[in-house]
Amino acid sequence: MDRVILIKYGELSTKKGNRNFFINTLYNNIKSKLSIYDVEIHKDRARMYIKFLENDFDAIKKVIDKTFGIHAYHIATIVDTNDEKIQDAVLKLALNEKFSTFKIDTKRSDKSFPIHSQEYNKVLAGLLFKNISHISVDVHNPDLLLKVEIRPKESFIYFNSYEGIGGYPVGTQPRGLLMLSGGIDSPVAGYLAMKRGMILDAVYFEAMPHTSIQARNKVIRLAEKLAEYSDSIRLHVVNFTPIQEEIYKNCREDYCITIMRRMMYRIMEGLSKKYRAYVIVNGESIGQVASQTLSSMAVINSVTNIPVIRPVACFDKLEIMKISRKIETYDISIIPYEDCCTVFVPRHPIINPSIDVALDEEKKFDYSPMIQDAIDTVQTIKITFDNDNQFSDLL
Ligand code: ATP
Ligand code: MG
Prior knowledge:
Elements: E1 2-8, H1 19-33, E2 40-43, E3 47-51, H2 57-64, E4 70-80, H3 83-95, E5 101-108, H4 117-131, E6 136-137, E7 144-150, E8 154-158, E9 162-166, E10 175-179, H5 185-195, E11 199-206, H6 213-227, E12 232-239, H7 241-250, H8 256-274, E13 279-281, H9 294-301, E14 308-309, H10 317-326, H11 330-333, H12 340-343, H13 355-362, H14 368-376, E15 379-384
Helix pairs in contact: 3-4, 7-8, 8-9, 8-14
Bound molecules: adenosine-5'-triphosphate (ATP) and magnesium ion.
């Protein structure tokens, strides 16, 4: 018996004006993510279904489980719309299940099918009674709820329901730029931003030779994990070394982190224009470290007007870790490699910085050309979800 993955749109269908746009985006995302498989994808206003080769089932299910915009789906058996074939399939499926109570729920979208839904429920229930002993009907809370959808050419029969990851299809919002470090928080922030439908590019600030190639590889591996939720992600690697060295040569030690992060935001603003991104996304979480107190955030954020989205701002570290385990970035994030922030960390970073002091400290070196240079010399790595990455020449 052939099976299909049957996707119900769920939350998507409440987006009245945008409904077609959302459905088409989801369709295109699924099509592109499944392009290496031999599949047929059909969509209508209420549902989408995917015909696949049985051998590919596990791999395809994994892809569907990482596609935003899917709230629930079913694995349905598909048969020609023909009474005998439907009865055959219903019986085969039921014989494979353990249950003592059941309910049949027939929907008939093909009105030319000669038997009405209610009547057909009775026909199918009779079939089960005849062939399986010790079962009874329970319309309120059955062990087995068998759904039969009779459609013009082919009909679906299913009883299971799988939860999708929800959210909106990636691409229903424009591009955002994720500040991706090797830590735990920023990949989770990226995942949550994509869940809202954002297309993400990631930006990694590198400080070679103070940071290593292993640190970069770790970020690439994190980006690969995130790319499983979209189709691909571009990772822009910024050479942050000259700016960082100047900061530590010239500025008050306790303000170094504040100024370093203001420089990062300035570069992010330039990159947002370069790559046509609408927002910056990062893994800042209120109060986590000195640079993430509200007063620090205000001084740091004041260098740009571009909206900064902080998906984990109000999460506890434990809540963030829970998501990072779910999305399989945790084990990569905890590999101990130095980051550009950790290499230069001052003994006592300022907790409540003053904007005036920050501005005075920044007058001590000519940072504008360095910012421009960092933007101009960015290296871009395209990360695709099937791990077939084209970065070997950069390593
Ligand atoms: P994470 O927050 O990802 O666990 P972290 O705790 O080392 O890493 P923080 O010092 O908390 O990073 O920095 C806050 C945020 O700033 C990060 O979540 C990330 O979005 C951004 N960030 C920090 N360092 C870098 C970097 N080297 N490249 C890109 N973004 C960075
Ligand atoms: Mg952090």
